């Protein structure tokens, strides 16, 4: 298979797996992560097939989204074999999709990602901040019946995935302090860091405006 044929096949596979999701992981998230990964690839010398394959597949076997992540991971492996990925390439894509998450980055021994993995991680995180990030947080909060804001809630400290999932008094604004405002400092590549800084400032401005309006100061 040619490179273009492989990319087309991965896109189709990802679309089929992701398009039914209503938690902010819709295929439009994947397409933005792809676009941003391509932008970062222009200044970073990474393997573009591994980068884009990992970007397309990074949420397919997410344990927050599917009941049986191991089965999906097996499906991904079989799919990649069928489009001529060798074992080493498959292992790298699986490793990246497995180790991308915020909670893994906060763990005691954060996984070391290849440059391809770092790019996808940056692109995924850039999609969680700025105007898109604000929209996704509100969308997610609505879907999970979160309150908008509670000035008495102290930003919680780092939590793992299971704790996040079981959180029932999370607020949308609190999510900015728990996660979104931490992402800029965690960017891997200089290109992503630069984009993140602008988006970060946009969120800070938004939070200032939000609180001023909340207190009827504006
Ligand atoms: P990803 O796996 O793509 O990094 P998540 O599954 O953690 O993202 O979340 C999907 C989107 O929903 C992200 O934009 C994230 O910021 C937002 N989100 C996650 N948890 C919450 C929450 N408790 N409240 C508001 N938004 C959230
Ligand atoms: Ni994602």
UniProtKB/TrEMBL annotation:
Pfam entry (one): HD
Domain of life: Bacteria
Domain HD/PDEase: residue ranges: 22-138
Name of this chain's protein: HD domain-containing protein
């Amino acid at each position: 298979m040619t490179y273009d044929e492989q990319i087309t096949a991965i896109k189709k596979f990802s679309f089929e797996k992701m398009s039914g999701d209503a938690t902010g992981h819709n295929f439009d998230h994947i397409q933005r992560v792809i676009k941003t990964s391509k932008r970062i690839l222009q200044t970073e010398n990474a393997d573009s097939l591994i980068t884009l394959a990992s970007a397309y597949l990074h949420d397919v076997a997410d344990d927050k989204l599917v009941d049986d992540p191991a089965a999906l991971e097996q499906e991904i492996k079989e799919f990649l074999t069928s489009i001529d990925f060798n074992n080493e390439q498959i292992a790298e894509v699986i490793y990246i999709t497995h180790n991308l998450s915020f909670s893994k980055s906060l763990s005691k021994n954060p996984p070391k990602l290849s440059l391809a993995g770092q790019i996808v991680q940056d692109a995924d995180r850039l999609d969680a901040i700025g105007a898109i990030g604000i929209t996704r947080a509100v969308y997610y909060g609505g879907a999970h019946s979160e309150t908008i804001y509670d000035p008495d809630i102290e930003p919680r400290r780092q939590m793992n995935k299971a704790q996040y999932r079981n959180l029932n008094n999370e607020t949308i604004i609190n999510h900015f302090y728990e996660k979104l405002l931490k992402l800029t400092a965690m960017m891997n590549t200089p290109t992503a860091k630069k984009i993140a800084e602008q988006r970060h400032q946009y969120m800070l401005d938004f939070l200032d405006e939000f609180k001023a309006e909340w207190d009827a100061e504006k």
